[in-house]
């Protein structure tokens, strides 16, 4: 019978590798390597040093620091010397670190020098060994025979993820760890020719067992990026010629998102070609053919030319991410486990793979407790990977196991008829609302969170209601020409809600200015979400202190004038360099019209589209104004110029067809036509709920009015294709680009000056639920410059006929009601464009039947 795997066997195998690299660290663009022989020698030497210093068998020793060779040397030394290793995440706060020191009663610690001072402060009697020179000096003494460790002896203390409350301390034995390392090494997923990139903190069980130990046991070299940020991970993959990454689903989702984001900068032909290739490759991969290796080699080059294998654990990978990676040609291996099972229990190994499942057990058994009609129930495990107890917590240990000895995971899943495990969700994460309804927050987060303006989203139960915490991505919304980010988010949430049962609709949401609480492996710490939601609902006042750098910026002439302009324009708001232009000042894309014009008129500063799109904070604005060009309104096309005969005929034909369709298919009825002015031009405003709104208004207007009427249109939607411009010109539709405020106001002003009528939808976007939204202030700015009569109109039935979430309209009755004109005297003395917009909003709202 073969000798079971152990730390001593690993050191022996490392020594046999001689000069072949075992650890590779990426530092400042260079590779620092440590051979297998050196790693084994240093680990043995440090183990001897610990034993010479009087460390007892089973003695707890804290280990804290970033991923590096010293950390690995210390960790392997603790394993072979019979100590009880207590790895602590280096990002842990003093409260967590202090609790660990109290629980484990350690009197020794090995650490990165940067953590020595706080360890000494938290535990003054602690004996500390620092990475580097101090550790090397200890290794200089004579070697000491290493003890024999029994498989059932404790090797380390690990901690539960803390997603549902205070972490529990798990005792893992040498046998628990070996039960995962042995089958992973025997699977030959990686071998001596591989380099395994490990961007996860080794203090956690999953990267330590699956990434480090299994990788070294397979003969591979382990690569540590300089930091665990995206750019450094990509750089490490390329520089090291990594063949494998051991990561978590969030990392792979970010890789896919980054790839798709880069596509937006590609030309349309390249974009179309890539999407078609990926779709074809994915279809073929589902049939067992990996065509992505050839078809999409260029797309994969960003992550290195040799990367082939992606290992994912820590959470369930979203199927969309999985199939994107498989379509790209990667070998993706997922699995399931918890800290209580030494990180892994099941996995998709060669010759036993089922995509979207978490594979089969490496050793031991899985069963589903009390399955429902779909086979879904709690996952229970039994096998050599499963821990035996929580440290000093008999009650928690007893609760974790069934009467017949199976470990209760707290996860819901099912087994197919071949024994592959499919994981659904955490039982504890299921939300029970006030009415007793149960919802899966992860499923709703996926639905509601699919929007470029949402960076993070968590769904939670708050005072019996379903609510959401949202961290916005203002730059994403701005780059797409969206409205104020909160408006964009609200519209999106309401649109999604229309497609869901009532109990799944959000009762509220809060915008968070801080990252949502997660574990280092990316899971939400859900028990902290309610207090985060409270802080988001009642945010504290931002600090008023200004740094020396910002003070120097504010002393320069132009930034100082802009800063004073903002203070005068937005009284009562937090005007600091860190203030967010959208979230703190409420500057939406139409408000840029007024602000940019004020900067042009008062300070002679012109901000172009690219500059405005790049601005997030006041500091960004102050830095940009110094490089801004002198004020000038870019020349645009004269959309009010007379149309040629062909365009006039085309316009009449389109409007005649529109009137026929509106009457026959939608039974359009029009009320209040007598309120349309007989003399003078006017601005027509209406609610906006559907793509049918403009056709309905056009069909409701008499020909005499229609011939002098122009329509403000979204340039991206109506003018982006070559054939659209002449058609829009025929219908007297002109582009209103909210990201170019000077041009937008100049075009609208020019039309009003020439006596034309303008149709404007002041909400900016189609309503997600049919209700009237707030009017944006752009219309107020226009009317302050050009006071003309305003005719309010209300469109009914369009939302039912063609709401945002439907692909095609339904032939339902429509009704348009024109109200009495609002004359300029109603707002002539009003300086605030927002109040003018509110006055018009109320007039439109009053027309509802």
3D structure, described in words:
The structure is a single chain. Helix content is 38%, strand content 18%. It is α/β, with parallel strands linked by helices and 849 residues long. The strands form eight sheets. It has a nine-stranded mixed β-sheet, sandwiched between helices. It has a seven-stranded mixed β-sheet with strand order 28-34-33-29-32-30-31, with helices on both faces.
Helix content: 25-40%
Average pLDDT figure: 86
Radius of gyration: 32 Å
Largest sheet: 9 strands, mixed
Describe the secondary-structure layout:
Elements: H1 7-16, E1 21-27, E2 30-35, H2 36-52, E3 60-64, H3 69-80, E4 84-88, H4 94-104, E5 108-111, H5 113-122, E6 127-130, H6 133-138, E7 154-159, E8 169-173, H7 174-186, E9 195-197, H8 205-217, E10 221-224, H9 230-239, E11 244-247, H10 249-263, H11 268-286, H12 292-295, H13 297-300, E12 309-312, H14 319-327, E13 331-336, E14 346-347, E15 360-361, E16 365-369, E17 377-382, E18 389-390, H15 394-400, E19 407-415, E20 421-426, E21 431-432, E22 438-439, H16 441-448, E23 454-462, E24 465-472, H17 474-479, H18 485-497, E25 508-511, H19 529-537, H20 548-554, H21 557-569, H22 591-603, E26 605-606, H23 609-614, H24 618-625, E27 629-630, H25 645-664, E28 669-671, E29 682-686, H26 693-700, H27 703-706, E30 709-713, H28 715-718, H29 724-730, E31 733-735, H30 741-753, E32 757-760, H31 778-785, E33 789-796, H32 798-801, E34 815-818, H33 833-845
Helix pairs in contact: 1-2, 2-3, 7-8, 10-14, 11-14, 21-24, 22-30, 25-26, 25-29, 31-33
């Amino acid at each position: 019978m073969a000798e079971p795997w152990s730390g001593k066997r690993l050191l022996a195998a490392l020594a046999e590798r001689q000069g072949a690299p075992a650890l590779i660290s990426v530092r400042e663009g260079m590779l620092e390597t440590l051979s297998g022989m050196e790693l084994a020698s240093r680990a043995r030497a440090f183990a001897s040093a610990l034993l010479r210093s009087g460390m007892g068998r089973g003695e707890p020793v804290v280990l804290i620091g970033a991923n590096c060779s010293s950390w690995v040397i210390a960790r392997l030394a603790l394993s072979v010397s019979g100590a009880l290793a207590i790895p602590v995440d280096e990002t842990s706060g003093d409260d967590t670190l202090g609790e660990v020191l109290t629980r484990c009663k350690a009197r020794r610690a090995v650490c990165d020098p940067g953590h020595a001072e706080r360890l000494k402060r938290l535990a003054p009697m602690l004996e500390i060994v620092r990475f580097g020179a101090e550790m090397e000096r200890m290794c200089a003494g004579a070697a000491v025979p290493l003890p024999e460790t029994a498989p059932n002896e404790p090797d380390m203390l690990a901690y539960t993820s803390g997603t549902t409350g205070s972490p529990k301390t798990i005792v893992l034995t040498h046998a628990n760890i070996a039960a995962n390392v042995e089958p992973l090494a025997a699977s030959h997923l990686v071998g001596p020719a591989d380099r395994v990139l490990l961007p996860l903190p080794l203090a956690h069980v999953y990267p330590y067992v699956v990434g480090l130990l299994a990788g070294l046991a397979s003969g591979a070299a382990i690569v540590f990026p300089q930091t665990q940020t995206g750019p450094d991970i990509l750089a490490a993959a390329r520089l090291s010629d990594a063949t494998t990454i051991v990561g978590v689903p969030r990392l792979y989702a970010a890789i896919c998102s980054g790839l798709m984001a880069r596509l937006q900068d590609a030309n349309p032909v390249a974009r179309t070609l890539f999407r078609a290739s990926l779709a074809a490759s994915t279809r073929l991969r589902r049939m067992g053919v990996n065509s992505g290796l050839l078809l999409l080699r260029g797309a994969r080059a960003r992550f290195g030319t040799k990367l082939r294998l992606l290992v994912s654990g820590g959470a369930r990978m979203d199927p969309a991410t999985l199939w994107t990676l498989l379509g790209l040609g990667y070998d993706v291996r997922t699995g399931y486990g918890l800290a209580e099972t030494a990180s892994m229990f099941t996995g998709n190994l060669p010759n036993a793979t089922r995509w979207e499942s978490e594979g089969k057990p490496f050793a031991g058994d899985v069963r589903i407790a009390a399955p429902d009609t779909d086979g879904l129930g709690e996952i229970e495990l039994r096998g050599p990977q499963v821990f035996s107890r929580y440290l000093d917590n008999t009650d928690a240990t007893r609760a974790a196991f069934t009467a017949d000895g199976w470990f209760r995971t707290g996860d819901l899943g099912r087994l197919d008829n071949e024994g592959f495990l499919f994981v659904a969700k955490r039982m504890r994460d299921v939300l029970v609302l006030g009415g007793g309804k149960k919802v899966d927050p992860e499923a709703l987060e996926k639905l509601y969170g699919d929007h470029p303006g949402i960076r993070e989203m968590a769904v939670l139960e708050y005072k019996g209601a379903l609510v959401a915490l949202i961290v916005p991505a203002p730059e994403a919304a701005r780059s797409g020409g969206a409205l104020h980010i909160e408006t964009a988010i609200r519209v999106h949430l309401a649109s999604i809600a229309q497609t869901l049962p009532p109990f799944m609709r959000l009762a509220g949401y809060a915008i968070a200015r801080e990252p949502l609480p997660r574990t280092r492996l990316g899971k939400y710490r859900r028990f902290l979400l309610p207090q985060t939601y409270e802080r988001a609902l009642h945010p504290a006042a931002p600090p008023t202190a200004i740094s020396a750098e910002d003070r120097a910026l504010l002393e320069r002439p132009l930034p100082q004038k802009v800063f004073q302009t903002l203070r005068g324009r937005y009284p009562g708001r937090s005007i600091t360099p860190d203030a967010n232009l959208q979230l703190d000042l409420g500057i939406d894309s139409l408000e840029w019209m007024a602000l940019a014009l004020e900067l042009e008129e008062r300070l002679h500063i012109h901000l172009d589209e690219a500059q405005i799109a790049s601005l997030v904070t006041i500091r960004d604005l102050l830095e940009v104004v110094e490089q801004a060009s002198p004020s000038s309104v870019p020349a645009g096309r004269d959309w009010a110029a007379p149309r040629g005969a062909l365009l006039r005929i085309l316009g009449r034909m389109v409007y005649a067809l529109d009137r026929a369709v509106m009457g026959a298919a939608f039974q359009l009825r029009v009320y209040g036509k007598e309120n349309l002015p007989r003399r003078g031009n006017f601005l027509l405003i209406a609610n906006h709920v559907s793509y049918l709104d403009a056709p309905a208004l056009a069909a409701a207007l008499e020909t005499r009015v229609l011939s002098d009427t122009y329509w403000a249109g979204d340039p991206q939607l109506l003018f982006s294709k070559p054939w659209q411009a002449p058609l829009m010109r025929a219908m007297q539709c002109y582009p209103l680009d909210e990201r170019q405020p000077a041009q937008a106001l100049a075009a609208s002003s020019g039309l009003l000056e020439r006596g034309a009528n303008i149709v404007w939808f002041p909400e900016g976007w189609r309503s997600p639920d049919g209700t009237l939204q707030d009017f944006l202030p752009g219309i107020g700015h226009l009317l302050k410059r050009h006071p003309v009569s305003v005719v309010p109109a209300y469109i009914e039935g369009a939302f039912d006929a063609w709401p945002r979430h439907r692909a095609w309209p339904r032939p339902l009755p429509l009704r348009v009601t024109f109200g009495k004109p609002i004359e300029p005297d109603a707002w002539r003395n009003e300086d605030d464009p927002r109040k003018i917009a509110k006055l018009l909003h109320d007039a439109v709202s009053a027309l509802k039947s």
